[in-house]
Amino acid sequence: MVEKEVNPADMWDERFARPQPVYGEEPNAFLRAQATARLKAGAKVLVPGDGYGRNGLWLAKQGFAVTTVDVSSVGVERARNTARDFKIPARILLSDLTTWKWPTAEYDAIVSIYLHLLAEVRSTIHARILQALKPGGILILEAFTPGQLQFSSGGPKSLDLLYTAEILRSDFASAEILELEETVIHLDEGKLHSGKAAVVRAVFRKE
Q1: Which phi and psi (to 5°) does residue 51 adopt?
Q2: Which of 13, 53, 59, 150 has the smallest C-beta neighbourhood within 10 Å, fewest atoms?
Q3: Is residue 121 part of a domain?
Q4: CATH number of 59's domain
Q5: Total structural domains within the chain
Q6: Nearest CA to 201 among 141, 138, 114?
Q7: Measured between alpha carbons, how far is 138 from 134 in angstroms, rounded to an integer?
Q8: What is the pLDDT of residue 24?
Q9: In DSSP terms, which residues pair with 47 in a beta bridge?
Q10: pTM above 0.90, yes or no
């Protein structure tokens, strides 16, 4: 019997439809620190794979000009509702990142937080991320490493979806490395991201 392939949009729709935000309401800690230290007031920021908007809407509340893109119609609707209810100015788009028309040299920063992509599309999407950054623009990224398989704090269960510092060094070889580290942290991001976690954290600057 052949297992039916799960549609990513359906998976994320189910997850984001739960009453409580499964990854909490606060922004990612690494993003918060990096945005405070590195982003200029009013910077134009893209957040691909932002789900129900916890990172993008936080950035918008800090005064950044934010665009988010996600494949989940449920996540996008929740993000739009939150933005409307709290009068948060943000451009929130529904699209698959593999087919979205990525702009060229448009953003001061791009934020990739636990955006795990299969190997066959990962390098292409990472190339599009660099394409969308202005010269001198930065990428802020946090993702799980293969070491995460020993922990129960969330993340993909397939090695194909996990990142290493070397993978990122290769994908973003044309960019300047400002930070790149594999480390173990304590996650406190809602029910599905809670506990000890093995991650890679990176900041790249487009030449």
Answers
A1: 55, -125
A2: 150
A3: yes
A4: 3.40.50.150
A5: 1
A6: 141
A7: 8
A8: 62
A9: 68
A10: yes
Structure tokens at 98: 């593999």
Blockwise average pLDDT, block size 10, the chain, 207 residues: 59 78 84 97 97 96 98 95 97 97 98 95 97 98 98 92 98 98 92 92 98
Question: CB count, 10 Å around CB of 112?
Answer: 25
Task: Report which residue type is found at 5.
Answer: E
Kind and range of the H or E run holding 164 = none
Interatomic CA distance for residues 20 and 134, integer angstroms: 36
Domain-located, residue 1: no
User: Pick from 123, 105, 121, 200: which is nearest to 155 by CA?
Assistant: 200
Considering the domain boundaries, does residue 52 fall inside one?
Answer: yes
Strand 44-48 to 107-113 pairing = parallel
DSSP letter string, 39-89: PPTT-EEEEET-TTTHHHHHHHHTT-EEEEEES-HHHHHHHHHHHHHTT--
Q: Does residue 56 fall inside a structural domain? A: yes
Please answer whether residues 99 and 121 qualify as being in contact, where contact means their C-beta atoms are separated by less than 8 angstroms. no
What does the DSSP 8-state code read for residue 160? G
Q: What pLDDT shows up at residue 26?
A: 87
